[in-house]
Design goal:
This protein is an alpha/beta fold. The protein has three domains: 2-115 and 326-414, no CATH class; 136-316, no CATH class; 418-556, 2-Layer Sandwich (Alpha-Beta Plaits), CATH 3.30.70.1350. It contains 19 helices and 21 strands. The protein has helices spanning 2-25, 27-41, 46-50, 59-65, 71-82, 114-134, 164-170, 192-204, 216-228, 230-239, 250-256, 264-276, 283-286, 302-306, 428-438, 474-491, 493-501, 516-526, 543-546, and strands spanning 96-101, 107-112, 142-145, 153-154, 160-162, 208-212, 292-294, 318-319, 331-332, 341-343, 349-354, 377-383, 391-403, 406-414, 418-419, 426-427, 446-456, 459-468, 508-512, 539-540, 551-556. Helix 8 (192-204) packs across helix 9 (216-228) and helix 16 packs across helix 17 (493-501). 41% of the residues are buried.
């Protein structure tokens, strides 16, 4: 397998990198070509007719003719796509709708077309070409990746809805598929403990050259599960089994049988590795041949990355996967130095707006890629072949330099009203709705409540600061916090999943000393905040915010 992979990338890799380099040397010419080709292709779709795509000849005309959009603006088109109506946002039908958490409890459905799928595949080829150029040894072993199920539901029109990662994994080319450790069915196991055990049981029976999964918290979860289940893993590898202690569906057990062969030699290796780890399996002993971890390094991922040294070889390189989300794969990282990646200039349209601006952007206000400055931060807007046009990502990026004239960017944080540590993407509106639901019986009996996303040690946690208008018994406070937790899980499925898997710790309720909110409000106004503009913070990732209040007592939610 490694020989075939080496041959493929020996032929295609240098050419792929040269083509990307050429695109980056002329960023606006590349952007104009992408954009005008896209508009001609989709001029006949409903959105294209409404905004007269056929008459647009330049990037500037595009900015004047097409408004900035949010999901709510294109939701009617997507609803018709879901129902099976053709030619809404694009001329071609979507092959998948990616489901992701929205600003309310309702999910967003992001269309994936054959064209957008090909664009993301092209960007990944550039990433792989640069990675194998620098780490050819990755091809000598398996890649351990973690994805989500491709199909979670079927739209009324018959199109599957689910995770693009699962769709790409399941439909990867035959020449590439043997590179990966786990069969796709592994990721369809419903029970969290069973799923992660099965992933590690399979991977520990193999030689792993690279772990590839976006969130470093997932990398740590895998490493922790490896150590927790040392004895079961060694026994299963020796016997060619999958422990009955874990709730794996019978059908999936049957499909995994082919990769669960008895391997006494590998079990002996694992026993030696466990002794080296003081009785627990650690990745650095199980996979001494590992070349790389590929995951996000930007934003607030630093605490996770610092923990890698507990499990992996001290000098093991970590390469960022670039800026990407359900809506767009926006940058390509070409080295191990950091999270900085070149804009995917040939496969998406990009516009920007300064974070420091004092007004909201109008359509013509957005900046193009050639107008950005190093060291400045911007909100990012994307146009994709999946049917997003001047779409507000609500993300903040920073320009850290330039690659052949194209901006190098790194993700900084979600934009307004969103906190996310491990992909939960918790929105202020969801927090407000959960609090209102849980506090329905006590409406009007508290001064303020704010959710603070922070790290408890190196684990993310949400703490709710609340000032009641009177004494509240301990049991009532505990019940209130449990109610907020349940309501929040109902509001945001991704938050619920991260809580269930242990990647987000149980929330706390911090009861604030009476009078603290008013003191805070007065201090803000004295510091220059206009009284009419003062708004209560409902959700923040600024841990220092919590330190501004005196806490009388703290309540911890029950583990889920």
């Amino acid at each position: 397998m490694s020989m075939l992979l080496r041959m493929i990338f020996a032929v295609t890799g240098p050419k792929t990198l040269r083509e990307f380099q050429e695109q980056c040397r002329t960023p606006m010419a590349t952007q104009e070509k992408f954009l005008l080709d896209l508009l001609r292709t989709n001029a006949s779709c409903a959105f294209g007719r409404h905004h007269n795509f056929a008459s647009i000849r330049t990037f500037g005309e595009f900015q004047r003719a097409v408004p900035i959009t949010k999901y709510e603006d294109i939701e009617p088109y997507i609803s018709r796509q879901l129902a099976g109506e053709p030619a809404q946002l694009t001329a071609t039908r979507p092959v998948l709708f990616v489901t992701t958490s929205g600003t309310t409890g309702k999910s967003k459905y992001i269309p994936v077309t054959p064209e957008s799928k090909a664009a993301k595949s092209q960007q990944m080829r550039v990433w792989f070409s640069a990675m194998l150029r620098d780490h050819p040894g990755v091809a000598d072993a398996k890649t351990l990746s973690v994805v989500s199920p491709e199909v979670e539901e079927i739209a009324p029109g018959g199109t599957p809805c689910g995770a693009e990662s699962g769709h790409a994994y399941r439909s990867m080319p035959r020449a590439i598929a043997p590179m990966y450790s786990c069969p796709y069915e592994t990721f369809e196991i419903k029970d969290y403990d069973a799923k992660y055990y099965t992933i590690m049981r399979i991977a520990c029976g193999q030689s792993i050259g690279m772990i590839l999964t976006p969130n470093p918290s997932t990398v740590l979860l895998l490493a922790e599960r490896m150590g927790q289940h040392t004895e079961d893993i060694i026994r299963d590898v020796r016997d060619g089994s999958l422990s009955a202690r874990f709730d794996v569906e019978d059908e999936i057990r049957g499909k995994l049988a082919a990769v669960l062969r008895p391997d006494a030699a590998r079990a002996a290796h694992l026993e030696k590795a466990a002794r080296a780890g003081g009785g627990a399996l650690l990745p650095r002993h199980v996979w001494p041949e590992q070349q790389l971890v590929a995951c996000w390094k930007g934003g607030n991922m630093g605490a996770y990355l610092q923990k890698f040294e507990r499990y992996f070889q001290p000098e093991l390189p970590v390469r960022d996967l670039g800026y990407y989300a359900s809506e767009v794969r926006g940058s390509v990282v070409l080295d191990d130095a950091g999270p900085d990646g070149a804009l995917a200039i040939g496969t998406n349209g990009f516009e920007f707006f300064p974070v420091t601006a004092t007004s909201d952007p109008k359509g013509p206000d957005l900046l193009r890629a050639d107008q950005l400055e190093k060291g400045k931060r911007y909100f990012i807007y994307v146009t994709t072949s999946g049917g997003l046009y001047r779409y507000d990502m609500n993300d903040i990026i920073e320009v850290t330099g330039f690659y052949e004239g194209t901006p190098l960017i790194r993700f900084i944080q979600k934009g307004k009203g969103v906190v996310s540590f491990t992909g939960e993407k918790l929105y202020e509106a969801q927090v407000v709705a959960a609090v209102e639901q849980a506090m329905a019986a006590r409406r009007g009996h508290y001064e303020f409540i704010t959710a603070v996303g922070e790290l408890a040690g190196d684990q993310p946690q949400y703490s709710f600061l609340i000032e009641f208008d009177g004494a509240v018994p301990a049991k009532e406070a505990e019940a209130l916090l449990d109610g907020i937790e349940q309501a929040l899980c109902g509001q945001n499925a991704e938050y619920a999943a991260k809580r269930k898997s242990g990647r987000v710790q149980p929330p706390t309720l911090r009861v604030i000393k009476p009078g603290e909110f008013e003191r805070y409000r007065q201090a803000e106004i004295q510091d220059g905040r206009r009284d009419s503009q003062f708004k209560t913070v409902r959700l923040t990732s600024d841990a220092a915010f919590a330190k501004r209040f005196t806490v009388e007592r703290e309540v911890v939610a029950h583990a889920r």
